[in-house]
Structures are given as C-alpha cells and as structure tokens.
Specification:
Strand order of the largest sheet: 2-1-3-12-6-13
Structural class: alpha/beta
InterPro entries: Bact_solute-bd_prot1, SBP
Signal peptide: 1-22
Keywords: Cell membrane, Lipoprotein, Membrane, Palmitate, Periplasm, Signal
Number of strands: 14
Radius of gyration: 24 Å
Organism: Reyranella humidisoli
Shape: globular
Protein name: ABC transporter substrate-binding protein
Largest sheet: 6 strands, mixed
C-alpha cells in the first residue's frame, strides 16, 4: 500500500511539474501604495483570490511616475498585463486608450453592480471607443480624491493668530496666509518660512488639479455636457484670466517657495513636513496621513511615533476651501481613480474574475481604508463606514464629498487627458511667473492650445 501511495505522490509531482499542468497565472500591474497598510490590504485580497481560484497572481508594482511609461511600452510591444491600475490613468491616459480601442469593454462586470456606486464615480470609467463607435465601461473605479487645505495650527499660533481668525471669503482667505501669517511668523521666528505651498511644476498633477479648482471657483466651464469646447466665450476667457492671476499672484508676492515652480507631486508634502510652508493645498490628506503612518510604524522609535501622533491629533488641520469670489459655496471636483483590462490582455476571463472579487465590499473597503484616509470610497456602503467619522481629518474629507462633487473635463471630452498630460495649466503659470508674460497672453496661449487639441 505504501508503494502505491508513494508512486501516486511521485506521479502527481511529475504531472504538476509538466508544462501542461503549470499553474495558471494572472499578470497584474498595480501602483505601489503610499503606505504599508495600503499594500498589505492589496496583498491580502490577492492571497484570498489565489486560495479561492487556484490562480497564481503575478503582481508587479511600480511607483506612480513609472506606471504610465511602463504600461505604454507594454502596449506598444503587444504584451500588456492582464489587468492594471495606476493613480494617474484617469486624468492622463484612460480616455485616450479607450478612444483608440485599446481597452476591453467590461460593462458585463460593472453594470450588474453599478447601483452600489455613489454619484459622480463610475461615470469616469464610462468612456468612448471610436473604433466601436460607442460609450461603455472601458475601466473600473476603485477610489477617489479631492482638494483639501492642510495647515500647521502651532505655526499659525506662533504667528499670533487663531483658527477662527481665518477668513471664509476668497480674496481675504489667500491674503490672510500671504500678507498676514507669513510676515508675522517670519518676524516671530527670524526664519524664511512661506505662508502657502502652491504647486506649479509642469511635471506635477497637483499643479493642474489645484489650478482647475481655482477655475471652478470662478464658475468657468471649459466644456458642455456633450464635450463641446466653450473657451471661445468671453466670460470663459475672463474667468481663466482671474483664476490664473489669483493663482500666480501667490508666487509673485513671494508667498510660495521659489522651488514651487518645479515641484513634482511629493514636493508640496515635503515642504509642509519640513515646516518650510505653513499651509498647502493637496489632492488627498496624504500630508496628515503621513504622520498617522509614523505613529503606527513599529520600526520607528517611541519618540518618533509620539511625534507622529501629536502632529496628526493636535497640530495639523484639514479643511475645505473658502467661499468662491461670488460668495457661493465651493463645489469640489473629484478625481476618480480608474483601472483597466486591455483589449490585448492574454487572460481576460480571469482578469474579469479578479476584478469582480476585488470590487466586493469586503475586499475593496480594506484596500481603500488602508490608505489612512488618502482615498475616499466610491461605493455608498463604504462611505458610511465608521472609519470616516473616526477623526477630524477623515470627517473633513467625508463632509467635502457629501456636499457634492463635479467631474473632470476628460469625462466629457477625452482629449483633456492629453492637455493634462502635457500640463498646459502649469505651463501657463510658468509663462507668467518665470517668463514674465502677461496673464492675458498666457491665457490666450492656453486657450489656443486647448482648441488645437480638444476641438
């Protein structure tokens, strides 16, 4: 009997080693998370999927700045991953890929579950395919972000001000940080600290996402609901001029660091963490969450962890924007993060299966919450998780989203992904502050480029 069992075991081993019996694999590319807990939640979901299906997930993770170049190279070579996600696909490439017929229509996955999603979420993945001459779900949504203000409360106090001194109106708000807090802090500390961290780098998504919120503050609509350009309207031009003047005046008045014209996405965070800026605007609460991550990091010293806890709990504030220049409440645009399955993916059936599994509430929620508040959920159920009421930072994010959001232009006209990718918005800023052209001329150049690309 032992010989029979041993022979059967040897035969099983031989079969499993044979090419015909190789374990099935799913090739997954995913952006590297900001925090260990974010990646750990992804790894846990993958492990559960492997156990359930017997499929081996071949995971490759890359930094956010590397994801698009690597994906484009894989598409050009005809060997894309089976399924892929990056934090930048939505604003820079997904619409163009869909238009060119490079993405798989996954409406069969998304349609049955679409009632689970909150308003202004899955619309970002409903894209137009010019080859198929139709709109469909050519992507899936996982999480979303919007613009927040974060400031050091203790630095504000050192400057001699309290939080209730902060104005709630547009012009007065930005003047407060620039003309009052900055000089007062410098006088109190004899240090060259800046009142505002204002992202302006051409290689930064923060710069254009922030600037477009200034555009929203002036009630400018660049496209209509059908995607048609509105930039020939004199009111649109006037609004863009006002927005660009407001945005660049902060730098021109010396209230944002000189290096902010070349900042990349992490740099406004770094300046804030180093306390060289008192306030900044950022398209997540990753700034506050960094200190929470420190507080939870067992590899740091007790002193470092205590510093992180104090910063998160006591010293950093998260807030929304002041009222618009016309006195109305700010409505925030949301950047809904999109992943894709490619038309040329080798294992589309398993990619669909993995996607369905990942979008289950019990798998998606830990992944989103693992980012410590950096991302807000796209599903109605996860938005009501106690996680979002657990502290003042997350509650501020919750309140901003619950007040209503707007989509980006590329959801109506995919060509705006091209404009975002080349960052016509930050180029206009730099024309004003670095090359000393007039705001009007910079806006006219920007409008000309928008018409050239997106008509």
């Amino acid at each position: 009997m032992r010989r029979i069992l041993a022979g059967a075991a040897a035969l099983a081993i031989a079969f499993s080693a044979a090419p015909g019996f190789a374990q099935e694999k799913l090739n997954v590319w995913w952006v590297k998370g900001f925090y260990k807990s974010e990646d750990d939640a992804l790894f846990a979901a993958i492990k559960k999927f492997e156990a359930k299906t017997g499929v081996k997930v071949d995971l490759s993770q890359y930094a956010v700045q590397d994801m698009i170049p690597k994906t484009v190279a894989a598409l050009d070579s005809g060997s894309p991953p089976d399924i892929a996600y990056s934090d930048t696909y939505d604003v820079q490439v997904a619409g163009k890929w869909a238009y060119d017929g490079k993405l798989e229509d996954i409406s069969d996955v998304i349609e049955p579950m679409k009632d689970r999603f909150a308003p202004v979420t899955i619309e970002t993945a409903y894209l137009y395919n010019d080859k198929a001459k139709k709109k469909a779900f050519y992507g899936f949504v996982l999480k979303q972000q919007t613009l927040h203000i974060q400031y050091w409360k203790d630095m504000l106090a050192t400057a001699g001000f309290k939080e209730n001194d902060i104005p709630g109106t547009w012009k007065e708000y930005w003047s407060f940080w620039c003309d009052k807090v900055q000089p007062a802090y410098r006088k109190a500390t004899s240090s060259r600290v800046y009142g505002i961290g204002n992202p302006m780098g051409v290689e930064s998504t923060d710069s254009f996402q922030s600037f477009l919120s200034w555009v929203d503050a002036y009630n400018v609509k660049l496209v209509d609901d059908s995607g048609k350009l509105l930039v020939d309207d004199p009111k649109v031009r006037a609004g863009l001029i006002a927005a660009l003047r407001d945005y660049t005046d902060i730098y021109a008045k010396g209230c944002s660091p000189p290096s902010s014209t070349t900042w990349k996405d992490p740099d406004n965070n770094v300046a804030f963490h180093n306390r060289t800026t008192i306030m900044t605007h950022n398209y997540t609460i990753s700034i506050a969450a960094k200190w929470l991550d420190d507080a939870n990091n067992e590899q740091l010293t007790p002193e470092q962890r205590a510093t992180g806890r104090k910063a998160y709990d006591e010293l950093i504030a998260t807030a929304g924007f002041p009222k618009k220049p016309d006195g109305s409440q700010m409505v925030y645009r949301t950047a809904v993060k999109v992943g894709v399955i490619f038309q040329d993916s080798k294992n589309k059936p398993r990619a669909r299966e993995f996607l369905k599994f990942l979008l289950e509430e019990e798998n998606l929620r830990p992944y989103v919450e693992g980012a410590l508040g950096r991302w807000f959920p796209v599903t109605k159920a996860s938005q009501e998780s106690p996680f979002w009421q657990a502290d003042k930072h997350r509650k501020a994010v919750y309140d901003q989203f619950k007040a209503g959001t707007l989509p980006f232009e590329f959801t109506k006209n995919y060509k705006f992904t091209i404009l975002n990718n080349e960052n016509v918005w930050a180029k206009a800023m730099n024309r004003v502050v670095s090359e000393k052209v007039s705001v009007e001329k910079a806006v006219d150049e920007m409008i000309a480029r928008i018409k050239e690309v997106a008509k």
